[in-house]
């Protein structure tokens, strides 16, 4: 076990844990943002630099600070390490620079993009970025390629996090896409016209932190904040598929199906293409109840979750609501549920 | 009944004086007030023949703007609808097809865009939320009264401004004289 101090908070984690995961054990607003690191994907992380932190003391044995900011998602902890994230102005300034770097070539087409409202880059830029751009040159563009009937690729929006490449490697049994080219010309592609049609390839949509890979069956149907997420499951015949999903309703229509994500936007249980793209009727699913939406998310707009502070005083609450209240403690009135 | 609070005043009924009993002085006093009002400035106007001047910051009927090439600016991003406190705005987005580049500015556009004027409270939050400078509340137009409720649901047919530079709304981004003349040529050839 190693004891580290993160933003003045002491936490004890097993050896070999990364700084980011140690911070996630503390939770809340001190957790560094992550654009490329994805817990279920081995080898992910270390690319986007969004999670840079200052190590003020390397370890108990060698308390010298690390000379440069380190990527917290790939740096393992050492006993006695002192890490500064939100308490260090240098980290916050550098993060502002990282946002600017990531946005250099990212088109500002959020009004058109289907990811808007649940986009990691949008949240990251909103929290850490500046509202103006200094970039005057032309943004990079790519020839549009078609990667199959289910997935829409917008290469201009890609931030080269490699998550989809790892997903295809580790979740599906055959990867046909990857990152081609180098530097400025690097792009996600299939090299020769090839469609992504593996049984589990739909998961690249969920792992994509931006709107580079989006669901074609959901394209321009609605915006995420007009839809209502409902947890549901079904007995999927595919052995690797968990069958546990979130259905996104608008009225009575299931507009799209996604895997369930945790508070860091990570999918723990992958779902197959059949569940994701073919089953869009309520009758196909066993509904469990509304999915919890973070109060600070734009998706919570116009969603009237019960802000019940005293469940006991309201008689005859539906069972699903009681379960929901037990799993997610009631919202605090007059503030964000952080 | 006995008073509970003991604060009620007991009115004494005195007999009327001679002037009161004569009746006419009170009549003439009342008539003089009536006559005076004939010659005073009137508080009302003869609407709809006459209208009052609008304040320059008045928030009236919405308009969906077009850009300098006559294309619709709205891209159906839904930010106006999510900002709307009255939930008056609904829209359906669609993908622009090939050959429609002169109709819609972006890849995505609003197939239908409806504002329920009965719900709308004319707060202008949609205008503030719009990232494309597409929706504005005009200072010189109002949603007029109508007989039927469904007539208050304004679709794109009544919200989108005409492409003709002379008939455009005064709110929002205005065309420069060069843009207006080139657009006129473009509209004539089309």
Defining traits:
heterodimer, A: alpha+beta, Ubiquitin-like (UB roll), Alpha-Beta Plaits, 3 domains, 5-stranded mixed sheet, 4-stranded antiparallel sheet, 7 helices, 13 strands, 18% helix, globular, disordered C terminus, B: 190 residues, alpha+beta, 3-stranded antiparallel sheet, two-stranded antiparallel sheet, 6 helices, 5 strands, elongated
Overall mean confidence score, pLDDT of chain B:
92
Greatest chain-chain interface?
A: A-B, 15 and 16 residues
Sheet with the most strands, sense and barrel status of chain A: 5 strands, mixed
The radius of gyration computed from the alpha-carbon positions of chain A, rounded to a whole number of angstroms, is 21 Å
Query: Given the C-alpha coordinates, what overall shape of chain A results?
Result: globular
CATH C-level label of the domain at 62-171 in chain B: Alpha Beta
CATH topology of the largest domain in chain A: Alpha-Beta Plaits
User: What would you call the structural class of chain A?
Assistant: alpha+beta
Tell me, rounded to a whole number, the average pLDDT of chain A: 87
Strand content of chain B: 5-15%
For the terminal residues of chain A, how far apart are their CA atoms? 28 Å
In terms of quaternary structure, what is this? heterodimer
Q: What topology, given as strand order, has the largest sheet of chain A?
A: 2-1-5-3-4
How would you sum up this structure in a few lines?
Chain A has 338 residues and is of the alpha+beta class. Chain A has seven helices and 13 strands.
